[in-house]
Each structure stands twice: as structure tokens, then as C-alpha cells.
Amino acid sequence: MTDEELMSAIAKSDETAFKELLNRYSKRVFAFAWRLCTDPQQAEDLTQDVFFKVWRSAAEWKPQAKLETWLYRVLYNRFIDTRWKVKGTTEELSDDIGSGDDTPEQALIKKSRERAVAAAVNALPDRQKEALILCYYQGLTAKEAAEVLSVTQGALESLLFRARQTLKEQLDV
Amino acid sequence: MTFNRFKNILRHSGAADPVPAGDGDAKLDVLLDLWRVPDCGELAARIYAAVTADERLRRQVFVFWRYSAVFSAVFMIGGFCFGLYSSHLDRLNTQSYFDTIFDIGY
């Protein structure tokens, strides 16, 4: 089923189509939420809010917009609304680092590098961080990411450039 | 443990450094890949359960709201009929009482 078919089925309260949509996008939406707030519980709440919105307002989605971009935009707006609650939470990193082939020493090194990267990304100004997450981790094009963040494509490219420059300095690359 | 083995462990067990040599952009990309998202488990199933439970509740509320006008009308008509019947009985009793008191033949 295409995204359009799924959304039109969900607009008619088709629970099977909704389940399919969840299987297709929930992990990606969760990943975006987690990278924005770095708190798994908040990220789950945000993800759930997004899919509640999808269930109730599927008819509002216009096929002109890519579904994934629309989901990120809904999530981002929700995140902006709740940002004051999210600020100040402790950062939790994945314990699942590296493959099972890694020795404890390798795992430790990777973990410390992961912490350094997470700290550097989280220290970026909000807009730069959001641009980086959307383009680098979520794989959106500059145009789609600009749409999510409500900025021009030029402004987004500038944000990305500055984010990468800052990260290179922070991480001694 | 030999000194060489100890040294090897200190040097990442002889494994290749995850950050390759090269230009800054390539190195940065490799570093950024290290920041992984934790596993969200059965998040999709949890969201599905929450949404379907909420949907069922909403439907029940909607059905109740939709038929509440009909229920209200039925209760009002029922109450009116019951009141009418009660007043009718009261009237019969009262009539019977006065009939008895003012029964001249008595």
C-alpha cells in the first residue's frame, strides 16, 4: 500500500491501515523525537501524540506533502509546544553500542566517542541541531527539512554549514 | 598477561580506530554515525493499543451523546405518565374519602 492509500484508509478509521503506518514510521519518528529531546520517555510521548494526531486528522493530510515530512512537522510543532518541559532533562545514551563482536575495550571507546558526539550535537544552537538531525539522521532533503523547520532552503543550508563547522571544532576533526 | 598484550588492550585491542583518517567531512560523518538511538521496543504495539482503546471510548461517548436526547425524552415521558397516574390515584382516593364523608344515606 502506498502512503496515500494508507492515509485515505486511516481517514475512514481503518485500524489495520493504521497498524501498517505505525510499523512503517514509528521507529523513524521516535528517532527524530529522541534526538530532539534526548529523553526516551518524552520521545515516546511525542511519538504517541503524533500518531494520535494522524489517527484523528488523517483527512487533513494533503498528498502534495510527503507523509514523512508531514509527520516530522507535526512532531516538531508538538516539540516546540512542550520544549519548556523537555529542557533540563538528563541525557541518556543507548546501551546498545557496537556489534556483539566488539570487545569490552572497543565498546568502551565507542561509548565515550558516542558521548562526545551527543554532547557536541546537543550543545549546538537549537536550529542548527534540528537542521542537522533532519538532514543527516532522518535523511530528508534540504527542501523537505526547510519545510519542517519553516525556513528557506538557503537558510537551512546555512544552518547545516554552521552546524558542521561547529562540530568539527568541537570534535577536533 | 604479557606487557605487549596489555599494551594491545590499551590500544583498543588492536582493532581499527572507528574514526578513519581522511578529510574532515568524512571523519565527521563517521563520528556522527556513532550517536545511536536507543531501542524503542514494542513502541508501535503500545501506540496501537492506546489509540484503539481511546477510539473505543470515543465511540462509546459518541453513542451515548447521540442517544442521550432519546433517553431523556423517554425518561421525561415515562415520568410524566407516572405522575399522571399517581395524581389520578390520589384523585380517586380523595373522591372516595369525600364520597364516604358526605354520603347522606350513611
Explain this structure:
The complex is a heterodimer of chains A (173) and B (106). Chain A has helices spanning 3-11, 15-37, 40-57, 67-86, 104-122, 126-137, 142-149, 153-170. With 173 residues, chain A is mostly helical. Chain A has two domains: 1-89, Rna Polymerase Sigma Factor, Chain: A (Orthogonal Bundle), CATH 1.10.1740.10; 100-173, Orthogonal Bundle (Arc Repressor Mutant, subunit A). In chain A, helix 7 packs across helix 8 (153-170). Chain B has two domains: 1-36, no CATH class; 42-106. Chain B has three helices and no strands. Chain B is rod-shaped, with a radius of gyration of 43 Å. The N and C termini of chain B lie far apart (128 Å).
Distance between the termini of chain A: 44 Å
Structural class, from secondary structure content of chain B? mainly alpha
Q: Low-confidence spans of chain B: pLDDT under 50, at least 5 residues?
A: 1-14
Strand content of chain B: under 5%
Number of domains of chain A: 2
Form type of chain A? globular
Please report the two chains with the greatest interface, counting residues with C-beta closer than 8 angstroms to the partner's C-beta.
Answer: A-B, 43 and 29 residues
Give the N-to-C terminal Cα separation of chain B: 128 Å
Percent of residues in helices of chain A:
over 70%
Radius of gyration of chain A: 18 Å
Quickly give the structural class of chain A.
Answer: mainly alpha
How many helices of chain B? The count is 3
Task: Please state the overall shape of chain B, judged from the principal axes of the Cα atoms.
Answer: rod-shaped
User: Under CATH, the topology of the largest domain in chain A is which?
Assistant: Rna Polymerase Sigma Factor, Chain: A
SS summary, helix count of chain A: 8
Q: Please give the largest β-sheet of chain B.
A: none
